Amino acid sequence: MKYTFYGQSCFELETGGKKLLFDPFITHNPLAKDIDINKLTPDYILLSHGHGDHIGDLITIQKQSGAKVICIADIGYWLGRQNIEAHGMNIGGSFNFDFGRVKMVNAIHSSTLPDGAAGGSSAGFVIYAEGKKIYFAGDTALTYDMKLLADEKLDWAILPIGDNFTMGIDDAIRSTYFFNCKNVIGVHYDSFPVIKIDKEEAISKFTNAGINIQLPAIGQGLEL
């Protein structure tokens, strides 16, 4: 399984011969200026919530790729009114797709769509594919609901670490004790001044806590 980072909380997982793109926000992120969205050809687009820094390039990429969107049901209805096919889910639900299984889990955050429409609940996802379990927390605060994932034996956790709008570094580290995962990829940092982090400090804190932390550069891939 390959992970490729595109900035903010946008990344792609390649698994089972399919490409899964998460929270597409690229063209309005100056840090991702070298990423050409016209070259992205996902089979699925997964949305954690409706904020612009997660949904910004959704329509453009969906129209050019024909990707099916996986999202909270409320956003699915909103997309349906724009003639975009979506697979709506809700918190706690799972569904088997042709690449593997997806479970939608709770995230503590707000969600409003770009036109001001309500975006329903924010969410995270657990992806079950290739014998691996990958948790994407979405935009979230530290929450005791994460303890519900402890029995999953997660292989990787993709966590926001930028603070201000989401968990910061310290709470992200605490969250790993809740769900017992020692492999972490950090997202949702550096795109705006208020979520700028000290990468060396972040790496040091995670490492000292016994956690394998990865902060790939934009465009960089990792084998999970």
TrEMBL record:
<comment type="similarity">
    <text>Belongs to the UPF0173 family.</text>
</comment>
<dbReference type="InterPro" id="IPR050114">
    <property type="entry name" value="UPF0173_UPF0282_UlaG_hydrolase"/>
</dbReference>
<feature type="domain" description="Metallo-beta-lactamase">
    <location>
        <begin position="7"/>
        <end position="188"/>
    </location>
</feature>
<dbReference type="Pfam" id="PF12706">
    <property type="entry name" value="Lactamase_B_2"/>
</dbReference>
<dbReference type="GO" id="GO:0016787">
    <property type="term" value="F:hydrolase activity"/>
</dbReference>
<protein>
    <recommendedName>
        <fullName>UPF0173 metal-dependent hydrolase IRJ18_16565</fullName>
    </recommendedName>
</protein>
<keyword id="KW-0378">Hydrolase</keyword>
<dbReference type="InterPro" id="IPR022877">
    <property type="entry name" value="UPF0173"/>
</dbReference>
<dbReference type="InterPro" id="IPR036866">
    <property type="entry name" value="RibonucZ/Hydroxyglut_hydro"/>
</dbReference>
<dbReference type="InterPro" id="IPR001279">
    <property type="entry name" value="Metallo-B-lactamas"/>
</dbReference>
